[in-house]
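Incident log entry.

Two folding requests arrived from the same account within the same minute. Monitoring flagged them as a possible duplicate submission, but the sequences differ. Recording both here for audit purposes.

Request one:
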Amino acid sequence: MKRPKLRKASKRLSCHKRYKIQKKIREHHRKVRKEAKKRGHKKPKKDPGIPSAAPFKEELLREAEQRKQRLEELKQKQKLNRQKEHEKKRKLEAKKNAAKIKEKAEGKVGILQVLEASDVVLEVLDARDPMGCRCPQLEQAVTCSGGNKKLLLVLNKIDLVPKDNLEKWLNYLKKEFPTVAFKSATMMKDKTMVRALQAVLKCLLKLLQEYSKTQDKGIQVGVVGFPNVGKSSIINSLKGKRACNVGLARGVTKSMQIVHLDKQTKMLDSPSIIADPSNSTLALALRSIIDTEGSDSADVLEGVNAIINHCSKQQIMMHYNIPDFRDPEEFLSILAQKRGMLKKGGVPDIENMAKLVLCDWTGARIKYYSQPPGFQKPPPYLTEQKIAEMQEGFNLNNLEEENSNTVQGRTVTVTDSH
């Protein structure tokens, strides 16, 4: 016997239920209209147009049409202006990118020229962050060049770090390459400071002159490094006058410059090493490579964030004389208000404030120093034989003694607390 098929439940509603739902909907709509009336929101009235009996109807219609046409023309004009502005920005961006590519290419050629022409290469490091200023590719190129080229590390701006920190870095770096502690000479009137700087200059000059004697010929000394580590300042200090242009802006040195120190020694100033943009923002900020004018505001803000998060908060508060802050954005906001750097409506101008902070960092107004790594492992290309080759021809005992005198007699411009 077949089972009877089950009938599907009907989807139809009973009249009572349907009427109840419709009533609720009507009540809801009535409630919405009532609330809208209370708020004063009225339904916009439809434009009735110009009545047929109105006088001068033709003129009024013509004026309305002309007004409509003028608005349309204004919209089109604004659209064209926007397109032109966009095109202008695009061309300017393309021009900047082309200039950067050209600068990078010229810089690379300039550095290669300096490396090829040099007997001794001075890699200048900022004492605040020596490892961040080293270029492994350059060091490998010099050590594996096959000739008799030497590489010296020059630890510049030693007055910006505490004495014990400087000693640690000298002990760390000298195990890989001969390292000279250095402070570029500036306009100073204090006799003690001048004497200390003369001792520093004498140390590097003596080292180069003694090496020249061992080679029994004149030598060419190439000076290389990242922007703002003080390459040109070192040459000017050794020469005793302004022989090379210097400045806080990156890329002041555009091509190789030759400066004669004496009959036996020529100094070759090179363009800055161009860091790979793929490096971390902190690395770029610490190497003073973020351009405050050419870079995007987001890059500048990110660079300031990296610096503020990396430096001592107490020191930042004391330097700028500001209260405690939760994050870099609040720091920039407080500082902008304090200095009156405001936009319309009293809104703090964070973008321009970030640029000024980045300039303070580049100009060494914000104090910072790093610690040497706990474990030292030289790169694969720097074998014991290569280390011995780099040291050959230099009086390392004299260098260590001179460095010790430099550390003891250096002019301190930073407190010994981090």
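Request two (distinct sequence, not a duplicate):
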Amino acid sequence: MALNDEEPVLVRKAQGLDQMSVDELEVRIAQLKAEIAACETEIEKKKAQKRAADALFGGNG
């Protein structure tokens, strides 16, 4: 099935913060905080794995 040349191509452009509403900014902050929390959780997992490996193999911390 060929695309009709007259159909618009939907492209999601990044919005500048100044173009976002207060509600959109609050949602964005919540999403970013969730991503940060996920990163911090992953960091702690990796640190725990390193500590366990160091304890087992006598690593230098």
